[in-house]
Amino acid sequence: MPKRTDIQKILIIGSGPIIISQACEFDYSGTQACKALREEGFEIVLINSNPATIMTDPEMAQRTYIEPITPECVAKVIERERPQALLPTLGGQTALNVAVAVGEMGVLERYGVEVIGASLPVIKKGEDRELFRAAMEKIGLRVPASGIARTMEEVRQVAEEIGFPLIIRPSFTLGGTGGGVVYNREDLERMARAGLDASMNRSIMLEESVLGWKEFELEVMRDHMDNVVIICSIENFDPMGIHTGDSITVAPAQTLTDREYQAMRDASIDVIREIGVETGGSNIQFAINPEDGEMVIIEMNPRVSRSSALASKATGFPIAKIAAKLAVGYSLDEIANDITRETRASFEPAIDYCVVKIPRWTFEKFSQTPDSLTTTMKSVGETMAIGRTFKEALQKAVRSLEIGRFSMNSGLSPESLKNPEYQGLIRQKLREPNSERLFYLTAAMEAGIELEEIHQLTKIDPWFLYNIEQILNFETHLRQQPLSDDLLRQSKAYGFSDRRLAELTGTDDDTIRERRTQADIVPVYKLVDTCAAEFEAYTPYYYSTYESEDEARPDEVRKVMILGGGPNRIGQGIEFDYCCVHASFALREEGVQSIMVNSNPETVSTDYDTSDKLYFEPLTYEDVLHIIERESPDGLIVQFGGQTPLNLAVPLAKAGAPIIGTTPDSIDRAEDRERFQALIKKLGLRQPKNAIAASASEALEAAAKIGYPVLVRPSYVLGGRAMEIVYEQEQLEAFIHKAVHVSSGHPILVDQFLRDAIEIDVDAISDGTATVIGGIMEHIEEAGIHSGDSACVLPPISISQELIQEIKVQTKALAQELGVVGLMNIQYAVKDNLIYVLEVNPRASRSAPFVSKAIGVPLAKLATKIMLGKTLSELGFTREVEPTHLAVKESVFPFIRFPEVDILLGPEMKSTGEVMGIDRTFGMAFAKAQLAAGYSLPLNGNVFISVRDQDKQAILPVARDFAQIDFGIYATQGTSDFLTKHGVHNRMVAKLSEGRPHVIDHIKNEEINLVINTSTGSKTASDAYLIRRATLVYNLPYATTIAGARAFAQAIAALCSGDLEVTSIQEYHESDVQIREGKEHRA
User: What's the longest Cα–Cα distance across the chain?
Assistant: First the structure.
C-alpha cells in the first residue's frame, strides 16, 4: 500500500533535553524521521526544546518550534499549524506522555489530528502496567507479579502476596526516586515509606523480583499489513537487577539456545500484534531463568527506544527511518534497503560479527553518592565497538570508553591480588554491581578466584566469563613467550591494543607498531551490510578487524576526515556531535568527500548516511592512524569533537596527519598556562592573578599572595573536574590532602576568584584574517559556576554597550594573535567595569549550537568551509547578527539519580543537557527555559527565601518583586528579620534544628512553591543541603544564586502578565533579516 495522500502536514514531538535514560538516541531517531518524511514530500512541523541537536536545525523541518514540550505548548503549535497528523513515537517517553496528555485535553479531536506511529489506545496498552499485564495473560505470556499500593497497609499486603525479594517502583517520580530492591520486611518499611513520600500521587508499584535472571531485548517492527520483522536480538552481559541502560550489551544474543531464541522471537511477534503496534518499531524486553529456562516478559515500549539506535548502528538497518515511513502508510515490503539497494525492509537483517556496547559513567562528578548500579539508570553515555568475535569487540569497546584504559587488565599489583583482605574487597565488588565491575571481574580472575564462584557472585553467564578468562590467559602466554608474528597476529585478532602489547612485552607502542608494519599485520576494514555479506553493500560503513580480505574502497578524490567526540559524558556531549555533523554537511556542499570516525552509537554523526564514509572505531592514536593511512585524506578536522580529538592532535600531526584549521600549536598556546600568560601580556589584556604550584607549600604560599577566595584545580584534569573555590587556608589544605596529589609532574593551578563578577561567553569565527562575533552570552549566575551549568542569555542584558564593544575588540585581537581558522570561544569575567580573560578555546565550543540557533547562522558549517580555504567575505558572513529576540539557555541536571548529592552548583560541570527559551522579553524567554527544563513555574503561592548575610541586601528587591505579584514569603529567622525591617511582609519558619513544623514540613505539605537558598561560602550548612534535596524530590523550582532568583521573579511576572505564545525559529530568523535589511536600506 503506497503512502497516504490524506496527510500533508505532520507534527513530530522531540524528546527535549539530554537526560539520563533519554539521551541523544532520540535526536538521531527524530532527525532520521524528519529527513525520511521530507523526502516523501510531507511538510514537517517540529517541537523540541533542545538547541544542541541536529533535529532542531532550521533545515530539518519547515517549521521548528524550540519551545517547552508541554501539553499546553504542543496544543498551541497544533492550533497555529493545523497538522493532519501527530507522530509521537520518536521522542522517547517525553513525546509519548505529552501526546497522551494532549489527546486527553481534547485538542486532537478538536483540530482533527490523527496520532500516527502508534494510536493512543496502543500507547496506553503498552505503557499501563495493568492493561499490559492483562494483554500478556491473554496471549499466554507471564509478566512478573506486581501490585499498586497507596498506603503502608497496602504495601504490606502486596508484599505478602508477592514475597521477597521484590522491586519498588514509585509512580510519577523523575528517575525512580525512592525505588530499588527490597530483601526483607525492615527494608520494605524504610523504602516503601521513602517511595510513598517521593511520589506526587503517593503510589508505588511493588514487583516480583527476577534478580539474577538473564535479560534480553528484541527490536521488532510491524506494518499495517501484519508483516513483522525482528531487527536485532540484544543480550545483557549483566543479569536482571541492573538497568538495561547501565548494562554492557551484546548483539546478537550469544547464549540463547536456538529453541529459546525461537520461543522469544515468537513471543515478541505475539506481543506486538496483541498490543496493536502496526506502523512502527517496538522494543520488547524478556528475562530468562538460567536454572530452568522459564521466560517472562518485562516490558514493551510501543515506540522507537533507547536500544533502537544501538540496533540500527549494529545492523545498518535504519529503524527510525523505516518506522517513520510505516507511519505514513508504507508496508515493509515497499521500502527499499538503502544499504543493499536490492532487498526490502521486510528482509530481516543478519550480521556476521559481534557488537558490544559499554555504558559511560561519571560517578567522579558526584562523590557523595555510592558507585552502585541498580534498577535506576545512572550512565550518561555509551560507546560501541564491532569485531569478528566477542573478545575483539569487547577489547575495542574498553579502549573506546576514554577512561585511560587500553585493556581488560585490572591494573592491580600481584601483591594486592594475593592479599586475602583485598580478595575480600574484590568479592564484595562482584556481589554489588558498580561502574568498575568489568575490571573487578578481571581482578578476580587474576587473583585466582574460580569462574564458578565469580558466576555465583555476579550471575553473569559463564560464557562471557570464559571469554574474558581466555583474554587473560592469552596475556599470560604473551608474557611467557617470545612475540612471534603468529602470536602478534592472534593477539590483534583478540582485540589487543598496541599499548597493551607494549606493556606485556616490556617495549613501547612505536616498537609494536613497527614490528606489525614489517610483518604486514595491519587491520582490514569490513562493511556493515545488514545481510551477512549475502548482497553487496553500497553505503561505506566500516569496522576494523584482523583478517585477510579488505572491503575498504579508498577513492582518488578530495577528502577530509572528521574525528568525532566518542561516548557522551558530562562536559563533552551532543553539542560536539552537532558540530561534527555540520562539518560533514559542509564538506558535501563543497564537493569534498567526508569521512567520519566515531564510536558513539547514539548520535547523528554515526548515522550511515550522514557522511560519505563512516568508520565505527575507537578514537585512539593507533586506531585513527590506521584509518588515515588507509584513506590518505587531504585534511583532518580535530577541532569539533571536544577534548577527545584534541588530545590526539599533536601526536597525529607528528605522524604527518594533515590537520586543517587552527593549528595544534595555536591550540596549545591557548591551553598551556605559561604560553597563555605570555599571550595575554603581549596583547595588554587582563586576567585574574594566578600561579602554578608544584607542592602543597607552594600552593599555600600562592593562595596567600593572590588573596582568598581562590579557584584551585589540578593541571592535568579538564572540564572542571576536581575544581573548587577555596575561601580559607584550612579548606585549601583539605583540598590538597583529599582531592589531588600535588607534585612537580602534577602541579595544581591557583587562580584569583572574582567574587560577584558577571561571566561572559563569546563565540566567534575567523578565517585567519577577519573575525566575526557569532554571539555574546551573559551568564545569569555570577562567576564561579561552570559555564556548562550556568543559565545564560543572548544578547547580554545587564552590561553596558561600551563593555560589549571592548569585549568584541579583545576577541578579535585574540583571534588574530592565535591565527584562528575556524571557531573559537572565549570566557570573560566583568567585575567593577573591568574585563578579565578567563579562558580561550580556539575550537568548537559547547555553546556553538545554541548560538547558531539563536542567530540563524550555522557557525560550524561556515567554519568547516573556512578550513577548506574559503574566506568569511566569500561566505557572505562579514557582520555580527544582532537578534531582536532573547534566547536563554538553561542546563538540566541528573541530581535525582544520585542520592545524597548536593544540588549546589560550582566550578565543576554536572549538567547532562540543556534547553532553550526564546521570546521577545527576557522574563518570558527565561520562563520558557524553566518550563522546558521540567519545572512548573507557580503563578501564585509562596516563595521560601533563606540567604547568607552578604546576599540580604541584594535579595530585597527580589522579595519585593514577589510580593508585588501577590506571592506569600516564607523565610528563616535571619532573612525574615531583615525583610521585616525593610518593610517586606513575610512569615518566619523554623529551620530543621528549631523544631516542627520546619521548612521541609512546609515543602511536603505543598505550602511552598519556589525555593531561594544561597549557601555560605566555605561550607554548605546541613539545613541548606536538606532543603535543596527536598526541592529535588518534590520537583520545585529553586535558585541558589541571587541572579537566578531575580530571573525567576521576572519569569513569573511575565507569565502572570501575559499569555505564553509559541513562535517557530524560522519566523524569528526571518524577522531579524527583515529588520536588518530595513536598517541597511535606511542607511
Answer: 86
